[in-house]
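Example record

One chain of 145 residues, shown exactly as stored in the release files.
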Amino acid sequence: MLKESGRIIDIKIIDGEKTAIVECISKSACKSCSSNDNCGVGVVAKSLSDKAHHLSLPYKEGMIVNEAIDLFIENKDIVKSSLIVYVIPLLTFVIGTILGYSFVNSEPVIIFISLFSLAIGVLTAKKVSSKLYPINTLSGLISTK
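Predicted structure tokens for this chain:
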């Protein structure tokens, strides 16, 4: 189970339902490493600011603004999402490349076919993920404790 800490920044009524707006700050892992002063990646990570992400979650009794909150995401949902995002584009790219090599002798055309099939894979992954995880059900995947 993945745990992320956040802070409730607002409580609004969206589509007739009370919703808590939660802000999570994503930090680079390089900032916490003991070798970050000697590593080029760590030096670059220090210069970049942390990103704030806002999530809309269903309001639960007792939630108040500026309260710290922990969000939990199940491992199965992380694995399923990762498979969709990475495997579908990779498979279409490999299949497109193999088909390109099978039917075409020009390398620039093979590269174009490969990139075109990769784009098709990305669009397919986006469509599949939006069907499996519509935006209004994402809050159901994240539980607060």
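Notes: The radius of gyration is 21 Å.
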